[in-house]
Design goal:
By secondary structure, this protein is of the alpha/beta class. The protein contains seven helices and nine strands. Helix 1 (34-45) crosses helix 4. The radius of gyration is 16 Å and the shape is globular.
Length: 203
């Protein structure tokens, strides 16, 4: 019988949404807030527990995750220093569990990515493939799955250096999974308009 690998999920949702103008984590798309969707998708894909890293507007966002199975929140009080601090906080919280072999890292602002696509990343992780990353527009990045042995190295990232830059430096070690819908991040009102337009025209 195959061994079951426990994968913890980390959803990065700490940013200040300065380009959007209001907390984009609370944007409602197809009847669901982006932050809640990201947590749900990670859990449905097989991550357990799912740790949502909050920062800006944490007091507004945290209650929106109440009652979700296996979802917990942590607050990164250093979120203003850049994306790396939130990544590090999430990775350390996940690795502190002690019994997970890998950590899934996702973003709260990629609403086009569904559970089936995240599951493809998790399913590709095994003893020989220890870094799994999504690929879109010829760029590798998150969502991604990292073996816990990489947590210490990733935890040395600083500023706005996120997992994507780390992955690109180690591209030869990365198993890439193409995600067609991964390129759309909702950073601006124009991005949201594009997302909604795609929703209306998709079959």
């Amino acid at each position: 019988m195959a061994l079951i690998t426990r994968v913890a999920g980390v959803v990065l949702a700490a940013g200040g949404s300065t380009r959007f103008g209001s907390p984009k984590q609370l944007i409602v798309d197809e009847g669901e807030m982006l932050v809640r969707r990201a947590a749900r998708v990670a859990y449905e894909a097989g991550a357990d527990p799912v740790i949502v890293v909050l920062g800006s507007d944490a007091d507004l966002i945290a209650p929106q995750l109440d009652g979700m199975p296996a979802v917990t929140t942590i607050v990164n009080h250093e979120w203003r220093t850049g994306l790396a601090s939130s990544l590090v906080a999430g990775l350390r919280a996940a690795s502190a569990l002690g019994d997970c072999e890998a950590v899934l890292v996702t973003l709260a602002d990629q609403p086009s990515i569904d559970a089936s696509e995240i599951k493809r990343l998790i399913d590709a992780f095994d003893d020989r493939h220890r870094i799994i990353a999504s690929s879109y527009d010829n760029v590798i990045g998150v969502p991604a799955v990292f073996g816990v042995e990489y947590v210490d190295e990733l935890s040395r990232l600083e500023g706005d250096a996120g997992a994507g830059s780390w992955l690109r430096r180690r591209e030869s070690e990365v198993t890439q999974i193409a995600l067609v819908s991964g390129h759309l991040d909702v950073d601006t009102p124009e991005d949201l308009a594009e997302l909604q337009s795609r929703r209306q025209t998709s079959p």
